[in-house]
Design goal:
- The protein is α/β, with parallel strands linked by helices.
- The chain folds into three domains: 308 residues, Glycosidases (TIM Barrel); 55 residues, Oligo-1,6-glucosidase, domain 2; 77 residues, Golgi alpha-mannosidase II (Immunoglobulin-like, Sandwich).
- 30% of the residues lie in helices and 22% in strands.
- The chain has 13 helices and 21 strands.
- Strands 11-10-9-5-2-1-13-12 form an eight-stranded parallel beta sheet.
- A hairpin with a 3-residue loop joins strand 14 and strand 15.
- Helix 5 packs parallel to helix 6, helix 7 packs antiparallel against helix 8 and helix 10 packs parallel to helix 12.
- The relative contact order is 0.10.
Length: 448
């Protein structure tokens, strides 16, 4: 049992939340990170016991074109600010993980600068993939190189080069010794070298007890990455898609099929925990994606109760909007005022639901450790159970605009309590009859 087995994450994109300039002026540091300290307490209050914050380190622009892995981005402040951020979180019982952008660097990273200056004579010519001195690029470097996503501002590191591997391992040791970080979210893990990830897992076992590695993976069989030799978890984009489209289409079969496939992918092992989310810094806000805004409730009930580790993206607990626009993700990464958000009555009601779900997740071990069993499934109603030693939960949701009744197998238990509604329901002959209002759900546990 490790801390991340019972984690509920709060995800912060700091450059956006702190209102940092879009481009790094590389001037005197501005301690904007300290403006985010109140969000630590807020995350704790809504039931999150871990924060994923990043990208954090010096970069030219959006944070994923790193220029210095050992220096907090000057737009956010100094290394002392980051030390205090992690220390403040730890004092409140909240773990912290950083973004590890190790697939690529920015063009102003020291190795790329040397390569641009010294070309064939650079000792770093093999730090990057497929450097070709017979070619050119839009920057007129007189050579070309592999990149991420077709963007030459992010030059792909050669992770098979022992010098590159050793440098990154040293960076992680520095992050642990300097900032006391508890884990890393690996950016673009779906294109990282597997031998490189094995080295990271070996290091994780060395640097700190229960040091957590989570990777950004979009498509594919997640058990290729999540296993004893590589990563502890990956981003669950399969479930992300099913959660919003399954509600927009009134199709709980899509969600249930996805869950069954993912659960089978992990060998029906409850310890196969993926990082579940409904939105993040790269995709539109859940409140924007939902055709019926009332589906906010059943979507989040499922987020917190299906197998996996739930995560909330900053501001989405209030139901804020965020839509992608052509050429920029800025609308997904806004500066926000916590005080203003908490002063909005409708947003406060949504936050109240998220806080209740966080409290329930902490109180019901089955939601962290339990197996998964589908009990009821129609296009518009869905129920399942989570069971572990000494803990049981029955979850029921309704995506119809009208109320609905569900007949759920309840085993030997007699009376159940709905943890969201407070209602008591008595089982009869091993069955539980549950009435749900439109676009709602509940989490039932045995009264005893």
């Amino acid at each position: 049992m490790a801390w991340y087995d019972e984690a509920v994450f709060y995800h912060i994109y700091p450059l956006g939340l702190a209102g940092a300039p879009e481009k790094n002026p590389y001037g005197e540091p501005v301690s904007r990170l300290r403006e985010l300290f109140p969000w630590i307490g807020h995350a704790k209050e809504i039931g999150c016991n871990a924060i994923y914050v990043g990208p954090m380190f010096e970069s030219d622009g959006h944070g994923y074109e790193t220029t210095d892995y050992k220096k907090l981005d000057g737009r956010l402040g100094t290394n002392e600010d980051l030390k205090d951020f992690v220390r403040t979180a730890h004092e409140q019982g909240v773990r912290v993980i950083f973004d590890g952008v190790f697939n690529h660097t920015g063009r102003n990273f020291f190795a790329m600068q040397d390569l641009r200056k010294n070309r064939e004579n650079s000792p770093y010519r093999d730090w990057y993939c497929n450097v070709n001195f017979w070619n050119n690029n839009e920057f007129n470097d007189g050579f070309s190189y592999d990149n991420w996503g077709g963007y030459n501002i992010m030059a792909k590191l050669n992770q098979r080069n022992p010098a590159v591997r050793d440098y990154i391992l040293d960076v992680i040791r520095f992050w642990v010794s300097e900032f006391d970080v508890d884990g890393i979210r690996l950016d673009a893990a779906d294109v990282l070298d597997f031998e490189f990830m094995k080295s990271l897992r070996w290091l994780a076992n060395e640097v700190k007890p229960e040091f957590w590695l989570m990777g950004e993976v979009i498509h594919g069989e997640y058990n290729r990455w999540v296993n004893e030799g590589t990563l502890h978890s990956v981003t669950n984009y399969h479930l992300h898609k099913a959660l919003y489209s399954g509600h927009n289409d009134h199709n709980y079969f899509e969600i249930a099929h996805t869950v069954k496939r993912l659960y089978g992918m992990g060998g029906n092992n409850p310890n196969f925990r993926l990082y579940n989310f409904v939105d993040n810094h790269d995709v539109e806000r859940i409140y924007t994606k939902l055709n019926n805004k009332a589906h906010f409730a059943p979507v989040h009930i499922l987020l917190y109760t299906l197998p996996g580790i739930p995560s909330i993206y900053y501001g989405s607990e209030f139901g804020i909007e965020g839509k992608k626009t052509y050429g920029t993700d800025a609308p997904l990464r806004p500066r926000l005022s916590l005080k203003k958000l908490e002063g909005n009555a409708q947003g406060k009601e949504r936050e109240k639901l998220i806080a209740s779900l966080g409290r329930i997740h902490a109180q019901v071990p089955a939601l962290s450790y339990g197996d998964y069993r589908e009990l009821v499934l129609t296009n518009r109603q869905y129920a399942f159970s989570r069971n572990s030693e000494g803990s049981c939960a029955l979850i029921a949701v309704n995506n119809d605009e009208n109320g609905a009744g569900l007949r759920i197998p309840a085993g030997e238990h007699g009376v159940y309590v709905g943890l969201l509604s407070g209602r008591e329901v008595k089982a009869s002959d091993g069955w539980l009859w549950v009435e749900l209002d439109g676009c709602t759900g509940d989490i039932f546990v045995p009264k005893e």
